[in-house]
């Protein structure tokens, strides 16, 4: 086995010394103030070891990373019926692009772009008794960590500036692919995006996707077949129009968020999470992508 701590250490040194750290997302005003010098990386291996360096215990806005966790909860609730309302193809466009949704009659390309995640939010609103509380409980169950919370200021900031998400939700509604009121679904969606977690909490939450659907608390949540679907979607759609680049450079299923987080995993082997708030032009963490490319290159551990 490679010496993971030594490898993480060298990745960390490269990251903190990098001259170009990307640009922090400013379209959600509440995220604009985050210092782009933060950098954390955390690895949890399937044989029970955990390694971290830098700001890996500091919480940040998980944003679109929440889409994977919302999808797995929806799978647990309604299974294959999801695919009557959402496709499973990469979009090749930005996460909030609207044109395809209209051309394709209100069927989002996949559950990891905004329109698809809004349909998943609608499914959760329809099927959970107290959607926001129950979703939070799900994350707390996965990790055994009751400190995971929403950031109300971020949720409000998204609500006040989420014009494109309102447009997507209204388009979905016009195509009858939203069962609940637009405001109710978006309130849930903005809250799920506002959830704050650290790299180590994210590695723990995603552990079930590297462990045949069984979470860190040893509870079975989704089947092997469902894990296969989630990981396939992360590989092909987890980085929007940069999914190809991530597969090419990193070679792992993963998911990014505009808060600068990335989680990736190798089934039966490990989950790895990075946080660096500066984004590249495609809206993915610049140094996070580089860090993960270095990790799989140095360790020779990828799905390929
Ligand atoms: N890519 C992202 O992380 C986007 C999530 C963000 N909350 C949005 O809806 O725009």
Topology:
Blueprint (H helix, E strand, L loop, with lengths): L3 H14 L5 E2 L15 E6 L4 E5 L5 E2 L4 H13 L20 H5 L10 H14 L3 H13 L8 H10 L1 H12 L7 H13 L1 E2 L1 H7 L18 H14 L5 H7 L4 E3 L4 E6 L3 E6 L2 E2 L6 H14 L5
Antiparallel strand pairs: 1-9, 2-3, 2-8, 4-5, 6-7, 7-8
The structure holds glutamine.
Pfam family, one: Glutaminase
GO molecular function: glutaminase activity
EC number: 3.5.1.2
Quick tags:
single chain; 304 residues; alpha+beta; Beta-lactamase; 5-stranded antiparallel beta sheet; 45% helix; globular
**Assigned CATH architecture of the domain at 59-261:** 3-Layer(aba) Sandwich
Distance between the termini: 17 Å
Total number of beta strands: 9
* DSSP summary: helix tally: 12
Low-pLDDT stretches are: none
**Order of helices and strands, N to C?**
HEEEEHHHHHHHEHHHEEEEH
Q: Might you state the CATH topology name of the domain at 59-261?
A: Beta-lactamase
Bound molecules: glutamine
Helix content: 40-55%
What coarse outline follows from CA principal-axis ratios? globular
Q: Sheet bearing the most strands, described?
A: 5 strands, antiparallel
pLDDT averaged residue by residue: 97
CATH superfamily of the domain at 59-261: DD-peptidase/beta-lactamase superfamily
What Rg is obtained from the alpha carbons, in whole angstroms?
18 Å
Residues in β-strands, percent:
5-15%
The top level CATH class name of the domain at 59-261: Alpha Beta
Spatial sequence of strands, sheet with the most strands: 3-2-8-7-6
Structural class: alpha+beta
EC number: 3.5.1.2
Pfam family, one: Glutaminase
Subunit structure: Homotetramer.
Protein name: Glutaminase
């Amino acid at each position: 086995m490679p010496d993971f701590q030594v490898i993480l250490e060298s990745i960390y040194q490269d990251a903190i010394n990098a001259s170009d750290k990307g640009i922090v997302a400013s379209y959600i005003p509440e995220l604009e103030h985050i210092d782009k010098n933060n950098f954390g990386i955390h690895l949890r291996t399937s044989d029970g070891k955990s390694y971290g360096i830098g700001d890996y215990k500091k919480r940040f806005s998980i944003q679109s990373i929440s889409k994977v966790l919302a999808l797995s909860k929806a799978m647990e609730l309604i299974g294959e019926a999801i695919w009557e309302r959402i496709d499973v193809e990469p979009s090749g466009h930005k996460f909030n692009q609207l044109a395809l949704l209209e051309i394709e009659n209100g069927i989002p390309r996949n559950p990891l772009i905004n329109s698809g995640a809004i349909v998943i939010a609608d499914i959760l609103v329809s099927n959970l008794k107290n959607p926001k509380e129950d979703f939070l409980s799900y994350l707390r169950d996965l990790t055994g960590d009751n400190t995971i919370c929403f950031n109300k200021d971020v949720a409000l900031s998204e609500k006040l500036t989420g014009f494109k998400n309102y447009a997507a939700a209204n388009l979905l509604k016009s195509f009858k692919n939203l069962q609940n009121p637009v405001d109710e679904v978006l309130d849930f969606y903005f809250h799920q995006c506002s959830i704050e977690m650290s790299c180590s909490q994210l590695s723990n939450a995603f552990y079930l996707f590297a462990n045949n659907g069984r979470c860190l608390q040893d509870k079975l949540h989704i089947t092997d077949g469902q894990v296969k679907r989630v990981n396939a979607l992360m590989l092909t759609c987890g980085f929007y129009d940069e999914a190809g680049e991530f597969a090419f450079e990193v070679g792992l299923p993963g998911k990014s968020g505009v808060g600068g987080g990335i989680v990736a995993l190798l089934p039966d082997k490990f989950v790895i999470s990075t946080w660096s708030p500066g984004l590249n032009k495609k809206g993915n963490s610049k140094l996070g992508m580089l860090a993960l490319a270095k990790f799989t290159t140095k360790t020779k551990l990828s799905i390929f």
